[in-house]
Amino acid sequence: MEEILVVQDLTKSFIIHNLAKHIEALHDISLNLKGGEFVGITGKSGSGKSTVFKCIYRTYVPQNGQIWYNSQKYGFVNLAELSERQMIYLRKHEIGYVSQFLNIMPRTTARELVKQAVLEMGSGEDYANMEAQRMLEHFELDKELWDCYPGTFSGGEKLRLNIARAMVKRPRLLLLDEPTASLDHASKIKVRELIEQLKREGTTMMGIFHDLEFMENLCTRVYTMSNGILHDLQI
Question: What is its EC number (predicted)?
């Protein structure tokens, strides 16, 4: 399989100006993913896991290192140096990101959020409606909530909606930042079912998890992070 993502010597630091502190968040992180692989990352809170994902998604700009992504539209490109216009395109069409938190548009219903994700991929109205309904049903979101604003949802309901919105696109690369953090056991099974489906369809994925049992027999490789350094982990 061809390589989809190659991270080389990634370094990220933060400056807290009011405390005059310089914090090294990532130290020379290197890893690669081939098409269809699912790489898991575990580690304590604050170890740098989410920072790796935010550098790949380019919500953070690294100080040093390269993030080579094999894009369908642009070919092999360094995400650390790509233009904002190109990154916006990749976020819409090729790279998905699921965080623990739902960023919602005001006065947009749950159904509309998932439907809009499908429309962004260039699909028609009927297909988008069908896919939105399929995903909301899969995650067992109460039908009474489909046409409600997610601002009133519980944390677990928001997270399920967030996952549905990202997975419905079947992105080329999917970043999952603790997608099961606030879910009950039944909802975790629903997430796992879709991850397994996306793997079969060839989606390349990286996931941050604290639940080692969830990761078992799901990940191709597993790493652990501590103090901004990536280590191999066998589970």
Answer: 2.7.8.37
Residue bearing tokens 């006065």: 107
CA proximity to 131, closest of 169, 187, 90: 169
208 contacts: CB under 8 Å, gap ≥ 6 = 40, 41, 42, 49, 50, 53, 176, 177, 178
Q: In what order do the strands lie in the sheet with 3-16?
A: 21-34, 3-16, 64-71, 75-78
Is-contact 56 204, C-beta < 8 A? Answer: no
**Per the structure block, which two tokens stand in for 219?**
């990940």
Instruction: Give the separation between CA 222 and CA 215, rounded to whole angstroms.
Output: 8
> How far is residue 198 CA from its own chain's centroid?
13
What span, in angstroms and rounded, lies between the C-alpha atoms of 59 and 207?
Answer: 17
Pick left, alpha or beta for residue 16 (phi over 0 → left; psi -120 to 50 → alpha; otherwise beta): beta
Report pLDDT digits (tens) over 131-154. 999 999 988 889 999 999 888 888
Token representation of residue 153: 């949802």
Q: CB of 106 within 8 A of CB of 114?
A: no
pLDDT digits over 42-101, tens only? 999 889 999 999 999 999 999 999 999 999 999 999 999 999 999 999 999 999 998 876
pLDDT tens digits for range 91-110 = 999 999 988 765 666 688 99
Judged by phi (left if over 0) then psi (alpha if -120 to 50, else beta), residue 103 lies in: beta
